[in-house]
Write a structure and sequence with these properties.
- By secondary structure, this protein is of the alpha/beta class.
- It has 2 domains: 62 residues, 2,3-Dihydroxybiphenyl 1,2-Dioxygenase, domain 1, CATH 3.10.180; 88 residues, 2,3-Dihydroxybiphenyl 1,2-Dioxygenase, domain 1 (Roll).
- The protein has 5 helices and 8 strands.
- The strands form 2 sheets. The protein has a 4-stranded mixed β-sheet.
- The model has no long low-confidence stretch (mean pLDDT 96).
Length: 161
């Protein structure tokens, strides 16, 4: 039996928790599908034998996917924020999500095909908008506000003025 974490993020899915978990495990390091459990009996969103829960890890964070049915949808009130080291890593994660049925949003946010929100946030952006020079931070922030996927070179140029 797989160890149960003391605190786990539970994400509600409409029958496709296993597909989502396998996608996350294929895209992000330190990610895996750790267990798939089938329902021991019928339940409101499925039948005995259907995948009920999937235990998985995303970037070291323990998660549980619950196939609870269509009544609850994901929204931006919850997101995974992924701190990237460079433009290549930023591009890789952004495109993995967008190019597999996801949606672009603003300021480094995107949504995967299951409706989970992701903030693909270069460390350079976080450093730039927290610059001790308020004018440099504001320039970087204003540049970010015009972007969907974050362009690190543009953020750094704005920070420098």
């Amino acid at each position: 039996m797989t160890a149960i974490a003391k605190n786990t993020i539970c994400l509600w899915f409409d029958g496709d928790a296993e597909e989502a978990a396998r996608f996350y495990a294929s895209v992000f390091p330190d990610s895996s599908v750790d267990g798939v459990w089938r329902a021991p009996g019928d339940y409101p969103a499925g039948k005995q034998g259907d995948v009920l829960t999937v235990q998985f890890t995303v970037l070291g964070i323990p998660c549980l996917g619950l196939n609870g049915g269509p009544m609850f949808k994901h929204n931006e009130a919850f997101s995974f924020q992924v701190a990237t080291d460079d433009q290549a890593e930023t591009d890789r994660y952004w495109h993995a999500i967008i190019d597999n049925g996801g949606q672009k949003s603003d300021c480094g946010w995107c949504k995967d095909k299951w409706g989970i929100s992701w903030q693909i946030t270069p460390k350079a952006l976080t450093e730039a908008i927290s610059d001790p020079d308020p004018a440099a931070a504001k320039r970087a922030f204003n540049a970010m506000m015009t972007m969907q996927k974050i362009d690190i070179a543009a953020i750094e140029a704005a920070r420098r003025g």
